[in-house]
Each structure stands twice: as structure tokens, then as C-alpha cells.
Amino acid sequence: MPRPPRLSPDELTAALSGLPLWSGDGTGLHRSIELPGFPDAVAALVRIGFVAEELDHHPDVDLRWRTLHVTLVTHSAGGVTGLDVDLARRVDALFPG
Ligand SMILES: C[C@H](O)[C@H](O)[C@H]1CNC2=NC(N)=NC(=O)C2=N1
């Protein structure tokens, strides 16, 4: 599937202003999600995984005890695209913070 283009700096700034739980730059969007315990963190990763499969767009996730460190980047585009913004919104819908 063709990938969309990387966001411009202005587009990225606008996207991040609508994603207050996320930080980042052109190399990736980042959010950490702390759960009550390790099993909850594993379950959260599975839930994110199903959304990722639905979107055919996948996060980089570092699971540390009960915290998921999520990075979104479109690897084939070499930076952040609208697909990452879409996935960030879907993650926030699951875990509003
Ligand atoms: C064929 C399939 O669409 C691609 O391999 C997708 C799958 N998920 C992906 N996820 C992310 N984050 N970046 C990609 O470039 C990517 N490519």
C-alpha cells in the first residue's frame, strides 16, 4: 500500500497541538501509558495491537513493567505521517489518560 508523505513542520506542530498526551518531532510521536500492573500493560498492548492491525499501521512499543512507551513513525516514509496521527488518536480513544 502506498504510504502518505511525511508531515511538514507546520503540519506536525498542528497535529501535536491536538494530541496533548503526545510529544515528538519529525522522527516520531511519543506517549507513555502507565497501567495499574504488568498484566494490565500486556492487555493494553494487545488492545493497541488490534487497532494497529485494523489500520495496517503499527507502533513501536517498549514495555517496562507496567508502562508502555509508544512511538509512532511511518517507517516506509522515514518520518511522521498522517497515519501516525490517526493511530495516536485511536490509542487515545482506548486510553484517554
Ligand atoms: C504492507 C504494509 O502496509 C506495510 O508493511 C506497513 C505495515 N505497518 C507499518 N507500520 C509502520 N509504523 N510503518 C510502516 O511503514 C508500516 N508499513
UniProtKB/TrEMBL annotation:
<dbReference type="GO" id="GO:0008124">
    <property type="term" value="F:4-alpha-hydroxytetrahydrobiopterin dehydratase activity"/>
</dbReference>
<dbReference type="InterPro" id="IPR001533">
    <property type="entry name" value="Pterin_deHydtase"/>
</dbReference>
<dbReference type="InterPro" id="IPR036428">
    <property type="entry name" value="PCD_sf"/>
</dbReference>
<dbReference type="Pfam" id="PF01329">
    <property type="entry name" value="Pterin_4a"/>
</dbReference>
<comment type="similarity">
    <text>Belongs to the pterin-4-alpha-carbinolamine dehydratase family.</text>
</comment>
<dbReference type="GO" id="GO:0006729">
    <property type="term" value="P:tetrahydrobiopterin biosynthetic process"/>
</dbReference>
<keyword id="KW-0456">Lyase</keyword>
<protein>
    <recommendedName>
        <fullName>Putative pterin-4-alpha-carbinolamine dehydratase</fullName>
        <ecNumber>4.2.1.96</ecNumber>
    </recommendedName>
</protein>
